[in-house]
Amino acid sequence: MICPCCGEVRLVSVMECSACGARQIGKPLAPPEVLLPKLGLPFAALACAALVVVTFLAVWVFGNDMKVGRVLLVSLLGDGTKLTHSLLQADSKLPYYRIFSFDAYRLAFTLSAGLIPLSLIGIWIGWRAMKNAKSNPALFGGFSLARFSAIFSVCLLAIFSLATISSLPGAIARRQAKRVAATRAMMYAMHYQALQKYHREYGSYPQELTDLSRVNAESVPHSDYWENSFSYLPVGVIASRGSAVSFSDYKLVSPGPDGKFGTADDITMVDGVIVDSQSNNSLPGTLPASEKLRP
């Protein structure tokens, strides 16, 4: 038994505690006739499932500038209260907001990285609770609660997994589009901050990108989002007797996501304009910079 004074464990037959010296003055209490089974694991499994639902609903209602929450308030309370009247004055289109399912679908994909593992934990705890309740029902209870929690967590796992799988292609495409847009922004920056500046000062585009150092344009990126170097080709050679060679046009090419030039995903700029990579070879009156003018 446990000593009530110091908490030391001692034999029931020993009348005095060896740790603190407390003496037993009566017989120990008899064990209870009925032992209540433990319900910790079933309630823990239910808590995991409830946490998934509460987290999703809270972010859905209060996220995105609380648009869903404001629409629900207006729908439930109408426009007769001071709160809803002020909400309608700020956004008169709230009663016509009907894309709840799309918001929920997009949010399910966003939160799936945290809610899917939490659902898996709820399934495991529920399975463990059911196993304990089957093997020793006198000590562990809550079999029905554990089964309900496990099934509920399985349903949540299926919902968030389906939302994630169906959203992956679109997410990959949007990520790729962002990278392409970033590369285009770099090319436009090179055009306006370096190439145009060089053309204004020297009346010609540079023969190589390294020549941009003459106009202090070293900070301009010379590689795309994927850290591949741009291909630069000055064209449209103009020359007069006794004057240096000058270039009136240029072509700037990024190899794109695959890192290979000459493929369909190349990003091509001609004289500051992004053009279709499949039709960028039709440049009238051009001459590669590698060819030298003959007298």
Strand content: 5-15%
Portion of residues within helices: 40-55%
Order of helices and strands: HHHHHEEEE
What is the average per-residue confidence, as pLDDT, rounded to a whole number? 82
Q: Which structural traits does this protein have?
A:
four-stranded antiparallel β-sheet; alpha+beta; disordered C terminus; 4 strands; elongated; 295 residues
Q: Can you give a write-up of this model?
A:
- With 295 residues, the protein is α+β, with helices and mostly antiparallel strands.
- The protein has five helices and four strands, in the order αααααββββ.
- It has helices at residues 40-62, 67-77, 82-90, 100-135, 143-202; strands at residues 231-238, 246-254, 267-270, 273-275.
- Strands 1-2-3-4 form a four-stranded antiparallel beta sheet, with helices on one face.
- A hairpin with a 7-residue loop joins β1 and β2.
- Residues 282-295 have low confidence and may be disordered.
Topology at a glance:
Blueprint lengths: L39 H23 L4 H11 L4 H9 L9 H36 L7 H60 L28 E8 L7 E9 L12 E4 L2 E3 L20
Antiparallel strand pairs: 1-2, 2-3, 3-4
Helix pairs in contact: 1-4, 1-5, 2-3, 4-5
Please summarize what this structure is:
The chain has 295 residues and is an alpha+beta fold. Helix content is 47%, strand content 8%.
